């Protein structure tokens, strides 16, 4: 049973698409220090906020949602342009669970990924949480929310455009920040890092946006109440007849 | 902790009885973290430091009886990132010029960085994987609580670990159903179907979370359980920690006068 599961996971492991999780040894002390401080602060606040918001439900709910993101990240799907990619899920998680619980879920995912797939190092965990948790999830959420509410909270169009733009932007911006961190550490010259990271993640971002849009529209059609900002219900038609 | 439903089987070497396995899991975590930070924070070009650390890692490998073939397989993952650094080396100036072709050049500075980063990444991966291969996941999670990691975070990690296997199996069942109905034929369809499956899996997941919560309530769940008493460290644990600190400092002291 276990071996079967592992062989089906193996497709996702040996592929260059995970290039945003920084391993150990690539970042210098100042970069590590700053990103760790910010990451620890983010974790502390989001733990507090998630507990206040979800009360005792926090543990089972966050746990299964983190497992969901983890399982979804292992699925590869084709991206237009010939390659394949997988979901990062930060913006998606935040649109469903809110920014605090979303970044908490993503943090759990990064910790387990580091331990299971060597996907991101132990010392670089702070940087990875900063790049993809804070910028990808938190930044992604507020971008999505701004766009969606500007177009109209209750329209599917606003939802789709908001999530598409935010998902693409969060991936690309996180990659650019990652490139800056590598350059600041003196590991890779900035132009090379920028070109390598940005060009690849522009494509990855398209995949992320497409799949997020499909997921979000599916949930919109079947259980719109599960969104963190659910669309307001229109007055039921039957009630106006009386 | 009841973690009998294991999602993945990482700890293939956790059943041995070597001196390394005798240490409390929290000591193993502390030693690993200390050592990895020492490796990573060594300035570029300090080859002798890494020689010492490498020697220590090799002895730990031997001591802990880790299965080498599995360990080597897990090292192969990092090559993409090393590739980016390799690319960076070609465009970097500074130091003595060794080779040039148009805008491409290899300099001593570039080579030093390439070698240092590769060594650091390799060594820290080795050390970290020794930990995960020799320590069972429940033991690791329990040790995290002992190390004062916020209990809420550990509880979330625990329940996540418990459900990864379940959700993975559920998704595979959905995918199998879609493949049987020939829905994965074109790439556009593949994306649509996978996206819809994610959506439907999330709805089920949320429902599952609620059900799990209800079940926990029915068993008298009242928020996070009290942290159990931390067992006092044995002498071996203290010795191991001291040795790690001495080793880390020893490696750095070689370059001290400069």
What would you say this structure looks like, in words?
The complex is a heterodimer of chains A (242) and B (258). With 242 residues, chain A is mainly alpha-helical. Chain A has one domain: Arp2/3 complex 21 kDa subunit ARPC3. Chain A is 72% helix and 2% strand. In chain A, strands 1-2 form a two-stranded antiparallel ribbon. In chain A, β1 and β2 form a beta hairpin. The longest helix of chain A has 33 residues. Chain B is mainly α and 258 residues long. Chain B is built from ten helices and two strands; from the N terminus they run αααααββααααα. In chain B, α2 packs antiparallel against α6 and α7 runs antiparallel to α8. Chain B starts with 18 loop residues before the first helix and ends in a 5-residue tail after the last helix. Classes of the chains: A mainly alpha (242), B mainly alpha (258).
The tally of helices of chain B reads 10
Strand content of chain B: under 5%
Reading off the top of the CATH hierarchy, the class of chain A is best stated as Mainly Alpha
Largest sheet of chain A: 2 strands, antiparallel
Compact overview of the structure:
Chain A has helices at 2-13, 29-54, 58-73, 90-97, 99-117, 125-151, 156-184, 190-222, 237-241, and strands at 76-78, 84-86. Chain A is mainly alpha-helical and 242 residues long.
What's the SSE blueprint?
The complex is a heterodimer of chains A (242) and B (258).
Chain A: H1 2-13, H2 29-54, H3 58-73, E1 76-78, E2 84-86, H4 90-97, H5 99-117, H6 125-151, H7 156-184, H8 190-222, H9 237-241
Chain B: H1 19-22, H2 25-40, H3 47-64, H4 68-75, H5 79-90, E1 97-101, E2 104-107, H6 108-134, H7 137-146, H8 151-180, H9 187-218, H10 235-253
Antiparallel strand pairs in B: 1-2
Helix pairs in contact in B: 2-6, 2-7, 2-10, 3-6, 3-10, 5-6, 7-8, 8-9
């Amino acid at each position: 049973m276990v071996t079967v599961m592992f062989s089906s996971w193996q497709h996702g492991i040996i592929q260059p698409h995970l290039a945003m999780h920084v391993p150990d040894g690539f970042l210098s002390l100042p970069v590590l220090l700053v990103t760790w401080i910010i990451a620890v602060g983010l974790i502390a606040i989001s733990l507090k906020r998630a507990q206040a918001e979800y009360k005792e439900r926090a543990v089972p709910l966050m746990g299964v949602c983190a497992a969901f993101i983890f399982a979804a990240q292992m699925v590869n799907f084709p991206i237009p342009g010939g390659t394949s990619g997988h979901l990062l899920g930060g913006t998606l998680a935040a649109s469903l669970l809110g920014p605090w619980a979303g970044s908490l879920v993503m943090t759990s995912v990064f910790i387990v990924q580091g331990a299971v797939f060597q996907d991101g190092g132990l010392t670089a965990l702070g940087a990875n949480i900063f790049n993809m948790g804070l910028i990808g999830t938190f930044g992604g959420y507020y971008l999505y929310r701004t766009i969606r509410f500007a177009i109209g909270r209750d329209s599917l169009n606003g939802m789709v455009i908001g999530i598409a733009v935010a998902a693409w932007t969060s991936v690309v911006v996180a990659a650019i920040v990652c490139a800056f961190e590598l350059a600041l550490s003196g590991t890779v010259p900035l132009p090379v890092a920028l070109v390598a990271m940005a060009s690849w993640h522009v494509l990855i971002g398209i995949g992320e946006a497409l799949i997020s849009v499909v997921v979000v529209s599916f949930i919109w059609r079947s259980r719109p109440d599960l969104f963190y900002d659910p669309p307001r219900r229109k007055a039921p038609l039957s009630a106006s007849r009386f | 902790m009841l973690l009998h439903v294991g999602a993945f089987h990482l700890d293939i070497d956790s059943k041995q009885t070597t001196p390394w396995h005798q240490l409390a899991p929290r000591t193993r975590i502390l030693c690993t973290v200390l050592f990895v930070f020492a490796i990573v924070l060594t300035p570029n070009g300090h080859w002798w430091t890494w020689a010492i650390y490498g020697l220590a890692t090799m002895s730990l490998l031997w001591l802990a009886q880790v299965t080498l073939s599995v360990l080597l397989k897990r090292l192969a993952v990092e090559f993409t990132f090393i590739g980016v650094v390799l690319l960076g080396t070609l465009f970097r100036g500074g130091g003595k010029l060794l080779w040039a072709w148009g805008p491409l050049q290899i300099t001593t500075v570039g080579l030093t960085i390439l070698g240092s980063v590769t060594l650091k990444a390799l060594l820290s991966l080795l050390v970290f994987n020794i930990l995960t291969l020799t320590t069972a996941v429940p033991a690791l999670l329990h040790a995290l609580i002992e190390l004062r990691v916020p209990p809420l975070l550990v509880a979330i990690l625990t329940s996540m670990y418990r459900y990864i296997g379940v959700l993975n199996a559920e998704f595979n069942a959905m995918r199998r159903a879609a493949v049987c109905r020939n829905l994965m034929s074109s790439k556009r369809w593949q994306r649509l179907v996978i996206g819809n499956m994610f959506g439907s899996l999330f709805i089920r997941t949320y429902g599952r979370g609620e059900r799990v919560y209800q079940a926990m309530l029915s068993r008298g769940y009242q928020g996070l359980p009290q942290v159990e008493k931390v067992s006092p460290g044995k002498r071996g644990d203290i010795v191991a920690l001291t040795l790690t600190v001495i080793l880390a400092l020893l490696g750095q002291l070689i370059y001290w006068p400069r």
